[in-house]
Structures
1.
Amino acid sequence: MEAIVGSFVLVAASEMGDKTQLLAFSLASRFRKPWVVLGGIFVATVANHALASSVGTWVSTHVPARVMALVLAVLFLGFGLWTLKPDTLDEEGDKPPRFGAFLTTVALFFMAEMGDKTQLATMAVAARYQAPVLVTLGTTAGMLVSDGLAVFLGDRLSGRVNMKYVRWVTAALFFLFGLVSLWTAWRG
């Protein structure tokens, strides 16, 4: 039980204000399907954190920090550009998104978690407790609580807030994360 509770608390706290919480808010605002987005977050988190708790040692010993920072920088800058693209769902009526809210959320969330502090925390906690399944359960629950707040807040605000401003602020934050990752890669 200590592995589950410890993992939950660590990830729930570290996810607050994290880029993936921002991504959850953005996806909920974009698709306006909070339960579908939360389901996508769940699937991506289980996959990502199971990977982290199972092969964390291999990643930490074989992928240089500089390379990981560069990959993250490219992803963040890409997320920033994607965020700037106006939502075409409003312009195209009821036409579904190209890959759908669920698959888009799964793919983006899985990639965003690669090398993220919550993934690294998952690796560390799994190494400490030697219980990858319990750690994955705890970290996934922590992610769902933190990101669930962002999903439902994003869904509620999407009808009341000018989405152009939300897109610009969100994109600016992703660009900031990208620049910080570039700086880390350059310094590394």
Note: The mean pLDDT is 78.
2.
Amino acid sequence: MTCFDTAFTRCPLIAILRGIQPHEVLDIGRVLVDTGFTIIEVPLNSPAPYQSIALLQDTFGDRVLVGAGTVTSPEAVGEVARHGGRLVVMPHADLAVITEARKRGMICTPGVATPTEGFAALNAGADALKLFPAEQLGTKALRAWKSVFPSRTRFIPVGGIVPENMQSYLDAGAAGFGLGSALYRTGYSARDVGHAAERFMKALPQNLHTV
């Protein structure tokens, strides 16, 4: 199993810390780790994202998979790797970015909105497919995709995911979720994130996490 397989099996929830700043990232990261999260993503359109990635990796890298989101170029993949990140998450399915991540032995979960993008991403070596934006595509699209994609394909809805709608996506075939502003947004304290994290963990069926 890859490190992604291990982390995702333990807890199939990806914490997306868009807007996080280095001075707060360790307190918030610690709350997430203590709650049971095993994958943390810092989008590159956050303030000083590489510094935050390095801090998370140095402090929690033996317990969680740390990486970057909103990775839009092969050059950015190299910077993520240089700062210790092992996960590349994308809003799109740029094959050059996927190829660069795979070349460096990194985990890559590109964003897809059509079956064409999804199959191309898998053929390029994607580890999972980020269904984005999930609130636009919805559960009907996910259910249809599940009927034609390889059975092992992991679909991870991102966008508009809250504890109340997780089960409907799971019923349609979601393997896990990327959690954005309902988990963390600029201005949230570690306590705020802890409360939100607990709500998401409680909404996740027991058989889907082992932490």
Note: The first strand starts at residue 13 and ends at 16.
3.
Amino acid sequence: MAVRPICAYPEAVLRQKAKPVETIDDDLQLLIDDMIETMYAAPGIGLAAPQVGISLQLFVVDVTGGQDANALQTYINPEIVSTEGRVREDEGCLSVVGITGSTPRAERVVLRGLNREGETVEVEADGLLARAFQHEFDHLNGMLFFDRMGVVGRDLIKRKYKRAQRRQADR
């Protein structure tokens, strides 16, 4: 297992629709292990394959940040099959470091996909887990959290991020 570099906005892979996983093999298992290690090292609560430069429909989530060994979930070729309600909360992203914004999401979702053993799983989630599912699913479709905001909010996030990048470069 290895910690992989996390792609930062505006890298092109973050804006591409990821390809479906066709084979669950040893290489994919290694990628999953690396993504889990990378997510925990960041630290984060979710990570999609495009965020480590791999355009595949795959993400890992653990909203406990590693505090509950049973909370770690892996989804291959996921789909959101239903949504309910609307909430708006602050959200951030490992690919847009240091920037958060009030992002609208469904309050509850049902997510279906394959686990790392290739078995179909379907999970109903609300709260932070529902938000994490939607956030990571968006990555698989080339979207970032600020794409869910209105024009004003999206532009504000982009300006904040560019300013933060300039400050970082000046150091």
Note: Residues 12-81+107-144 form a domain with the Peptide Deformylase fold (CATH 3.90.45.10).
4.
Amino acid sequence: MKDISRPPRQLVDALAAIGSATLASELYHKMGIRDPQIRGPRPLRLGRTAAGPALTLQCMPKREDLYNETEYEEPERQLHRHVLYPTQPGDMVVVDARGDLGSGIFGEMMLTFFAGRGGAGVVVDGCIRDSAQAAALDIGIWVRDVTPNFHAQTNIVPFAVNVPIACSNVLVIPGDIIVADDDGVVVVPVALAPKLVELASEHVEWEEFSRSRLAAGGDLRKYYPLSPEGEAEYRAWRHAQQK
């Protein structure tokens, strides 16, 4: 069974604390990644942030001569189970389900297993089922929609585990760091993550300064983005904060 390499948890937690919007901006402005967002999947329940290395599942169009099992027939041929088996605390599962709206890739029981193993969240470019029960679990879930159908009932089947996938046409390499919150889902190439934390943390800091000035009636032209005058004031504020 294929597994992934996992980055240090403190690196993942630092990215999660920064948030998807700032990460997407800094990946674009500073690191040359034009569009890191997995478009389509939305949070099943608002108010959650989940981040971790990606376990990946690739789905393909169904061809009955190769795969025609019913829901509970030959469970070990059903690869959506296999992507969950290696789960370690903090992992994210990312599924290229081809945007299909008639296949419930996971249901309550599978997601309960994932939560019980300490998984952080699931991102599906497609659907899950048992949505009310899934929303009550202590994991984050981002999906296009929900359905009563099981995973291989209609148009697609799970095809490969822990391979590079095109989730909503965004490349996800197994082990990439996924950060998901109410704004959406961002893919962070693991090799870029340490530098991204450094750059994005400074962004978060100057926005904290700007927010305080704007809330007090400060000039938007001065404080967002920082003008040269605002930059000088920010540097002095930062120096005072460090003291």
Note: The mean pLDDT is 94.
